[in-house]
Amino acid sequence: MLDPAAPRHFSIASAPSDDPGSLELCAAEVVERTRYGRTFHGLCTGHLARLHAGDAAPLWIRPGSFDRATAAPNAVWALGNGTGVAPLRSVLRERMAARRHAG
Q: Is the pTM of this model over 0.90?
């Protein structure tokens, strides 16, 4: 028997106040070739790539760490060293939504 697949962690790239009914991810589908020339697709990214708008996917959400960045009234220096673009995109969208709602 094979061991169960390990969970895949992705960062949320959308902002809850921008569109409360949706959740967006930034992910690139993994498509590689084995040493035997066969094409394989990443387990999770391949599954995500086959989904269509409105399809359901099981997920869980872990608390993030950008609370202070979204609440800051001034400019924020954001360094996404090793985190990718998704969390930074989420912060920017949250800040833009806050400005729109403030007038």
A: no
Which strand (E) or helix (H) includes residue 32?
A: strand 31-33
pLDDT in tens, 3-41: 888 888 888 888 888 888 888 888 889 999 999 999 999
| Of residues 12, 7, 6, 8, the one with CA closest to residue 65 | 12
Distance CA 85, CA 76 (A): 15
Q: pLDDT for 45-67, tens place per residue?
A: 899 999 998 888 888 888 766 66
